[in-house]
Write a structure and sequence with these properties.
The protein is an all-alpha fold. The chain is 68% helix and 0% strand. It has five helices and no strands. The longest helix is centred in the first third of the chain and has 32 residues.
Length: 134
C-alpha cells in the first residue's frame, strides 16, 4: 500500500468517526448555541472552556480524549459552519471540514484569551467568519 493511499484511508476513517460523533451529539451542539451564557457552569459540557478542550482533543486525534467533549466540539463547529454559511456570514472553501474549522477556533481564542468567557457558538461563528468571510 502506498503512503498516499494509507493517508487517504486514514482520513476517510477519521471523517467517518467525526460523522458518527456529530450524529450522536447534535443536540449538544444545539445547546451550545441556545443556552445563555449565564446558564453554563464552568464544568458544563457546553461551557466554552470544555468545548475548547474538546476541540483540542479532536484536532490532536487523541485516542484517550473525552469523546463527549470531542463530539460536542465537532457538533458545535459543524453547526457554526452550516449556520454561518446559510446566513451569508461564513464562506469557507468547498473542502473545509470540521477539523479545519476547529483549528481556526482554537487559534482565534489562543490569540484572544480574554474572549474565553464568551458563549462558544457566537465565538465560533466570529472566528470562522474572520477566517472565511463572505
Amino acid at each position: 500500500m502506498t503512503g498516499i493511499r494509507w493517508v487517504e484511508m486514514r482520513r476517510q476513517k477519521s471523517d467517518e468517526h467525526i460523522g458518527r460523533l456529530l450524529l450522536r451529539l447534535a443536540p449538544v451542539a444545539f445547546l451550545a448555541f441556545a443556552v445563555p451564557a449565564t446558564a453554563q457552569p464552568a464544568d458544563s459540557i457546553v461551557a466554552t472552556s470544555q468545548l475548547l478542550m474538546g476541540c483540542r482533543l479532536l484536532v490532536e486525534n487523541s485516542p484517550d480524549g473525552d469523546m463527549m467533549q470531542m463530539g460536542a466540539c465537532a457538533g458545535a463547529v459543524r453547526a457554526a459552519l452550516d449556520i454561518g454559511h446559510s446566513i451569508g456570514r461564513v464562506c469557507p472553501p468547498e473542502r473545509v471540514g470540521v477539523l479545519d474549522a476547529a483549528r481556526i477556533v482554537i487559534s482565534f481564542v489562543d490569540e484572544r484569551p480574554e474572549r474565553k468567557s464568551e458563549r462558544f457558538g457566537p465565538l465560533t461563528m466570529t472566528a470562522i467568519g474572520y477566517r472565511w468571510p463572505c
